[in-house]
Amino acid sequence: MSLPDPLPIPPFTRPARGELTLPGSKSITNRALILAALGRTTVTLRGALFSRDTRLMVAALRTLGFEVQVDEAALTLTLTGRGGEIPVREARIEVGNAGTAARFLTAFVCLRPDGVYHFDGDEAMRRRPIGALLAALSAQGARASSNAFPFTLHTSGLPGGEVELDASESSQLLSALLMVAPHARTPLTVRLKGATVSRPFVEMTERMVRQFAQGPTDYAIEGDATAASYFAALARVTGGQLEVRGLNTGADALQGDGEFYRLLARQGLITTQGITVAAGATATGFTADFNGFSDTFLTLAALAPLLQGPTRISGIAHTRKQETDRVAGMARELTRLGQHVIETEDALEIHPRPLKSGQVIETYHDHRFAMSFGILGSHDLHGNGQPWLSVRDPACCAKTFPRFFELLESLRQKSLGH
């Protein structure tokens, strides 16, 4: 589906109604691909995500000599593991702007005792953290031509022992080492230099390592909890009710971003029952620390102009080094819409003001900007169903949710039928 650029967002003139199935989690899909490649069995991943980030991971694994069978219609990926062996000695690996692919593959190829791997990515990837991981891998004998993308990595296997890692800029740096650690020649222990951010993603990695150690041949991918945040916000924005299928809200859920649902429910902005999410009775701003589920902070920030009183979001300094500087970018776009925003290194405080109409939102090639402001634009600002906000580069959603705007429009059309 080709989208105009910029894309005017048609508001919902009636409360959102209908059901949707979430795409598979990108975080789980790309971890599962690495862990399946590290195993010794053939594993079928069910409910897998097909997006730019996961396609980059599949392409890289194929370049490295792994056989990956793809069935997009059935949402399955099937991969035969090589028990820690990297078949191809020298390769060029393109990671785009996929943080998971960039960090996980960098550690993964270091299992090869004599490898030469040329890594590169998008311009934005060249500004994203990788140096601390390369430093830890150099202590294991790897040699990198640079501490940022692009670089060439000469590998010599992982002898094991203790390595020190600074994971304060991205938890993916730690997750990358945790996945390959069981395949080092002797036990590999990671000692953190300071704290890591987004701890729930590290816990996801640890749990998945244990799951794959049991030798699964069939593995189900949870629906994307971060993507679910947009539909919780849509219910709030439109006063509607949606059935969101695929989200694991149980105690065994792998994704920490499900906390967004629980947070909004505690604040009274939404109600949840089973797979149903609906607008709650209150619409008041609040203060919350988003360090553990920071991918969803943009969803709340875009919703904040519609709440009563200020909203303060903290624990987000590390998101300045993600797809873009998300803190500065969100402050800039909300100010463009007429909001009063107080920005600090680690937080945003948003004071609602009348929204400015006719604005074009910059997305900075960041899918989460596009989707978050797509939800805000669904608010019928003028009460006439006419678009008042446009989103630049809507196709950037292909990174994790290629059909987002198509699904949003489908839900809008369904609401008209009620």
Short descriptors:
UDP-n-acetylglucosamine1-carboxyvinyl-transferase, Chain, 21 strands, four-stranded mixed β-sheet, 20% strand, alpha/beta, 32% helix
Q: Going by CATH, what is the homologous superfamily of the largest domain?
A: Enolpyruvate transferase domain
How many domain units? 2
Oligomer: single chain
Query: Could you name the CATH topology of the largest domain?
Result: UDP-n-acetylglucosamine1-carboxyvinyl-transferase, Chain
CATH architecture group name of the largest domain: Alpha-beta prism
Q: Please count the beta strands (DSSP E, at least 2 residues each).
A: 21
Report the radius of gyration as a whole number of Å: 21 Å
Strand order of the largest sheet: 2-13-15-14
Proportion of residues in extended strands: 15-25%
Mean pLDDT: 97
Largest sheet: 4 strands, mixed
The CATH C-level name of the largest domain is Alpha Beta
Explain the overall architecture.
With about 425 residues, the chain is α/β, with parallel strands linked by helices. It folds into two domains: about 5-25 and about 225-415, Enolpyruvate transferase domain (UDP-n-acetylglucosamine1-carboxyvinyl-transferase, Chain, Alpha-beta prism), CATH 3.65.10; about 25-220, UDP-n-acetylglucosamine1-carboxyvinyl-transferase, Chain (Alpha-beta prism), CATH 3.65.10.10. The chain contains twelve helices and 21 strands. The strands form six sheets. The protein has a four-stranded mixed β-sheet with strand order 2-13-15-14. A four-stranded mixed β-sheet has the order 4-5-3-12, with helices on one face. Strand 14 (about 270-275) and strand 15 (about 275-280) form a beta hairpin. It is globular. The mean pLDDT is about 95.
